[in-house]
Amino acid sequence: MKEQKKPPYGIIAILFTGAFVAIFNQTLLNIALPSIMIDFGIEASTAQWLVTAYMLVNGILIPASAYLIQRYSNRSIFIVAMSLFALGTLMAATAPVFSVLLAGRMVQAAGAALMMPLLMNVMLAAFPIEKRGSAMGFFGLVMVVAPAIGPTLSGFIVEHYSWRVLFWIVLPVALIPLALGIFKLKNLTFQDRNISLDTRSLILSTLGFGGILYGFSSAGTMGWTDPTVMATIAVGIISLVIFVFRQLKLDEPLLQIRIYKYPMFALSSAISVVVSMSMFSAMILMPIYIQTIKGISPIESGLLMLPGALVMGAMSPITGRLFDRFGAKVLAIPGLAIVVLTTYMFSQLSLDSSFLNIMLIYTLRMFGISMVMMPVMTNGLNTLPMKSYPHGTAINNTLQQVAGAVGSAFLISIMNARTETAAKDLAASGTNPADILNLAMLDGINFSFFVSTFIALVALALALFIKKPVRPATEAEKEIVYKQKEVTE
User: Fold this and answer.
1) Is position 489 within any domain?
2) Do 226 and 361 have their domain in common?
3) SS3 at position 1
4) Are 128 and 80 found together in one domain?
5) 97 lies in the same domain as 236
6) Contact 144, 313 (CB under 8 A)
7) Per-residue pLDDT in tens (0 to 9) along the chain, 489 residues
8) Membrane spanning segments where (predicted)?
9) What is the CA radius of gyration of the chain?
10) DSSP-derived 3-state class of residue 141
11) Residues 126 and 18 reside in one and the same domain
């Protein structure tokens, strides 16, 4: 055991690079789907599985990450994760048929799912609590900038080259951190070789989170009354209820649900879920508005959202430092007030709203969110004892996936229902038939943003109860933070 005088920035940089390329890849194919449909001669519902399957694999594997991080070294997990990601990328780039492309995306997702929880746990272990906000702020930069660049770069490449180029660009970027991980990465986390995996919990977790994610993701396109949607949501909810009760009985649960006894972790988790649901309103509804109603090209729509994401990324390190100094509450309340205001402003969109006006509101909204997500999440994790970090990060990442799927489906359903009602009213009022579709869809989008405003208000109300937690760490745990286990496996 060697004394660690300062955080191992070189090791963290390797993990950052791997996480960046994994998150960057998540949004890379969204704009490329039409080109893939043409190349393989498939329907939109089939092509959508490239996005849905990626999300499902993430939702299934992230809950298991708590066990894996406790059982195996961060070096072993990183090498396996990046190897899977690189293999999946190669499969996708060379796919002769759609099924191979889909399999490649799922293999990619298996590797990417482990990267975020792994990096968060290493960050929590490597930095003392008084410097953790700044560290997690830089982590937030990776979370925000990577998915923001994806659609913009994808739009440019697909417009000029084959969609396969997307994967050929990602492959070398994935191989570099893999090579560095093999030769340079040291272990920073501690393993419990005696911990066992409860296979029943893993099966219930897969059915629970997988069923909910698939059901809610499909509801937006297939409808809530579709038998498959209803069945998968029902199976998901029942499995998840059984899963929770089982975790409370086990001595070594797959996910330690008991960490919700820490009030600030429970509160931060609730705020993160609500903010994620509200945040997805802009991510889902804005492309529909600017591409379908405004007629803006996909690459221009990516550019419209890029400044907001870059501002959010630039603010992450700054909010991290402010969090270390002032705490989460001072940031979360004004940040959520901005989110509420800008979400309401989006509920007042018109056919004549200018490109610049939309971009400014979206950018301001991202600025507000940057003051909330990472500070609130870090505040909750700081409550936990060190042994619970893997469970806290796994629960947070899983709930964000579920909140995104549920929020998206909920808001799209509201938009569709309102659009249908508005179309009937416009037709009855004698509106020009050529204008009915756009006007009705605009009304649906505005109403969805109006509902999303109230969702954001719930998060703002919860933020009033945030307190700076006192982490219940033992002296032994405090010493572990500054030590590094140098075992190469």
Assistant:
1) no
2) no
3) coil
4) yes
5) no
6) yes
7) 343 456 667 777 787 788 788 777 777 776 777 788 888 888 766 777 787 788 778 878 888 888 888 888 888 888 999 999 999 999 999 999 999 999 999 999 888 888 878 887 777 777 777 777 777 777 766 666 666 677 677 777 777 788 888 889 889 988 988 888 888 777 766 666 667 778 888 889 888 888 888 888 777 667 778 888 899 999 999 999 999 999 888 888 888 888 898 999 999 999 988 888 877 667 777 777 887 788 777 677 767 877 887 888 788 888 888 888 888 899 999 999 999 999 999 999 988 888 889 999 989 998 898 888 888 888 888 888 878 888 888 888 888 878 877 887 788 888 888 888 898 888 888 878 877 888 888 999 999 999 999 999 999 999 999 987 765 544 444 444 334 444 334
8) 12-37, 49-69, 76-103, 109-129, 136-157, 163-185, 197-216, 228-245, 265-290, 302-323, 330-349, 355-377, 398-417, 447-466
9) 22
10) helix
11) yes
Q: How would you class 226 by CB atoms within 10 Å of its CB: exposed for 0-12, middle for 13-18, buried for 19 or more?
A: middle
241/271 same-domain check: no
Which residue range is the domain that position 207 belongs to?
198-253
CATH number at residue 193: 1.20.1250.20
The two structure tokens encoding residue 345: 């402003």
- The torsion angles phi and psi of 469, rounded to 5 degrees, stand at -80, 155
For the record, the structure tokens of 313 come out as 């990324």
| Those residues with Cβ within 8 angstroms of residue 470's Cβ, 6 or more apart along the chain or in another chain | none
- b/e 191-211 (16+ beta carbons within 10 angstroms → b): beeeeeebeebbebbbbbbbb
Q: Of 209, 229, 253, which one is at a domain's C-terminal end?
A: 253
Number of domains in the chain: 2
Residues 427 and 151: their CA atoms lie apart, in Å, by 36
